[in-house]
Amino acid sequence: MTIKKIGILTAGGDCPGLNAVVRAVSKNALQHGIEVLGFKNGFDGLVRNEFVHITNDLVSGILTLGGTILGSSNIANPFKYTLAPFGSAENPADLSGAALHNFKENQLDALITIGGDGTLHMSQQFVDLGMPIVAVPKTIDNDLSATDQTFGFDSALSIATEAIDRLHTTAQSHHRVMIVETMGRYAGWIALRSAIAGGGDVVLIPEIPYNDDVIANYILERRSRGKTFSIVVAAEGAKNEAGEQAVTRTVAGSTDPVRLGGIAYKLSQMIEEKTKIESRACVLGHTQRGGTPTAFDRWLSTLYGTKALDMVLEGKFGYMASLRAFQMQEVKIADAISKLKRVDPYGAEVKAALEVGMSFGSADIG
Ligand code: F6P
């Protein structure tokens, strides 16, 4: 089959590197004489038939640009559409038919979807309905098991690590405990790797339930050794032994409506009460998703983007580009979804953290 025209969209939470993928797909496609439509705001653009014609000029100079020139949405699910005027949170509408119609009406030969687990789910639903889709995995959380690394993660990691570096100096000056909260949803990758890279003292991740007394005693023990400050790195999804997590809100229409956040404030209060050491919370939040991608993410995004277009040319529909041992590969989207990659509490990274003296706030690990 000759490919003449393709669509591309960026869906889910944004992250550094999205534009680099859009650029790589588009430059590769335009070189092959393929027309590219960029749908706006994720699947919303496909439902509403809102798109831009991508030209070399449009994608020139966006390699280093954060965000996405196409816009994104983590609530525009065509199968359960909750955005007015076509649907509402109370009465979600199935507008997948409109998306399929627009795909055909625009005479597209393929669609490239760039997103995380929610986007992969929707992509597979459309594949099942006959839409030829190639997917590219994206998330700062790095929690997709079908790829060694998603783009966006390295940038988030470097932002979190820089924050830990900066918090060290102010913690030291004031002899305080600084609690830095990272994103990551149900996986502790950003917290663990930034804590290792930034020399954090305590790291709390969803995979290892923490105990308040273990954290407090560790900080007091540090103080007794003359270390008058401590850095606690807490993943937003970290749980205590009772399984409690900090939740800020729920977002109707999102594939995962739960929004985690606020654990740093709870920990700061708890630590101050138990240790009598002044503590402060610093929630990094969406700074981890903003700004320019790191060199690694620019490299990875370019590989993902060019690979995705190659897969389209080879007719590898229903597949996702994947990184394995620094090589680009293909995996079935169906095999990639719903398989979270989480930190192994007994794995090498946790062991390394323990061996440099870090605490996971747990009596069982360490
Ligand atoms: O999945 C990426 C992510 O940034 C998570 O780390 C975080 O929990 C969530 O998205 C935040 O979503 P929102 O942008 O809707 O606040």
Any overview of this molecule?
The model has no long low-confidence stretch (mean pLDDT 97). By secondary structure, this protein is α/β, with parallel strands linked by helices. α7 runs parallel beside α12 and α8 packs across α9 (263-275). The longest helix has 22 residues, at 153-174. The protein has helices at residues 18-31, 43-48, 56-59, 96-105, 117-128, 153-174, 189-198, 212-224, 263-275, 295-313, 333-336, 348-355, and strands at 5-10, 35-39, 51-53, 110-115, 133-137, 177-182, 202-204, 230-235, 247-250, 258-260, 279-283, 319-324, 327-332. It has a 7-stranded mixed beta sheet, sandwiched between helices. Bound molecules: 6-O-phosphono-beta-D-fructofuranose (F6P). 6-O-phosphono-beta-D-fructofuranose binds next to β10.
Number of discrete helical segments: 12
Separation, N- and C-terminal Cα atoms: 57 Å
Radius of gyration: 22 Å
Structural class: alpha/beta
| Number of distinct beta strands | 13
- What global shape is seen? elongated
What ligand molecules are bound, each kind once?
6-O-phosphono-beta-D-fructofuranose
- SSE arrangement, N to C: EHEHEHHEHEHEHEHEEEHEHEEHH
Helical content class: 25-40%
User: Spans of 5+ residues with little confidence (pLDDT < 50)?
Assistant: none
The strands making up the biggest β-sheet line up spatially as 3-2-1-4-5-12-13
β-strand amount: 15-25%
Main pleated-sheet profile: 7 strands, mixed
Mean pLDDT comes to 97
